[in-house]
Amino acid sequence: MLVCSANWLLPDTSLTLPPAVCEIEAFGRDLHTLAGRAGFRRDGRYVPVERLDLVLVGDMLDTLTSSRWHASLRPWHATPAVDQVMAEVTQCCLRQGRRAIASLRRLCRRGVRVPSATSLARPSGERSVTVPVRVVIVAGDRDPSVGLRAFAASGAPAWQTASCTRWGDRGEVFVTHGQSLDPAAATTDTTKPRHPSLCESLAVDLIGRFISSLQEHLQGSRWRPLGRLLAAAHPLELTAVLSAWMRRSGHHCHTLRVNDLWKRSIARWHREARREPPHVLGLPVDVTARLADWLERSLQTDEPATAPVDLVRSLTAERGEIHARLQAMAGGETDLIMLGHLSPAEVAAAANNDALTVVGLGGQPSVGRPCLPCTAVFEQGEHAGWQTATCTALPHSQAHVYAPLIVGGAGPAGIVDAVRAA
Description:
Elements: E1 2-5, H1 21-38, E2 52-57, H2 80-96, H3 98-110, E3 112-117, E4 123-131, E5 133-138, H4 145-153, E6 160-162, E7 165-167, E8 173-176, H5 198-218, H6 224-232, H7 238-249, H8 255-275, H9 288-298, H10 309-315, H11 319-330, E9 336-339, H12 344-348, E10 357-360, E11 374-379, E12 386-393, E13 400-402, E14 406-407
Parallel strand pairs: 1-2, 2-5, 5-6, 8-9, 9-10
Antiparallel strand pairs: 1-11, 3-4, 7-8, 10-14, 11-12, 12-13
């Protein structure tokens, strides 16, 4: 059985917060639920799964949204001082995320308990068996190599690391973070110095500075949850996330002040972006001025304005382009591709009429639904095809909702989209 999760964004907590306890606990419950569900075969028999492979599909750490980058140092620079700060931020992320990491350690040490099978091939209500857990960590765009190694070294037993991975006897499932498919997150190469991606530039010089200015001028740490939401948002979703947070949090008395600080932060980011233009994959022109103008104007209305068509086209990949790159990355024999980075809208752009099926993990934190995404894939008997299920745990709710985002034509057999428990 394969389970994938991504985008935990464990920060150093100088500007944002780590996943809440309820998210971590819900993730553990989701694993138990999915492991038990995977034991049911297509013919109705119950046979406990033999092993659970957990793949953490990138962006487990958030080394960008930190107050340490607010001087002249930037993560994409190549100096000893930058390397030192990156190492310190990474260690702080690991310390502050120790609760989440400890939950993964317990999974590796204890495994997952599921009901054993009776003589009639039904789940036993009295006996259980332990399913061993193995963890593999896949690199994301926010996981520097030093951070990935440190994260893997924090495990007990040791966790494996990879840039991508395959699952199944014939490698039918290909798992990758997918940043190279996102124009806003892709970079030309991994060497430094280099130009930042648009997402890197926004994380350091807009989101980081904005949250820092909120804490400075409005005091208190209540703005750090907003930093986590903004850090996980696509560039075209930033003002929508900010507006939703303001409406939900009830800080109406601070609306004018927040708007002013947002405009100032955009202006400072634009100055930095002109000095070090971010790289946007496949785009020969600079979109920073266009984006800065829209970000500033879109918050002035009751509902954030829709992004201009040309800006949307610049910052999202077309369906054919995504599909071609997926085929090149995964090869022609892969039936199922798991992405831990692209937004649901971008994954939907990969829809096509052939056998390539894409599963987008989604599950980025939202104002009303903090969650850790959890997508399971399991094979139901020899040559029976794949079955997938996605858990999204909703705090303060009695139900777990399974709603996998599956796009494509003739995908794996037995796709499920609903198991709801009262």
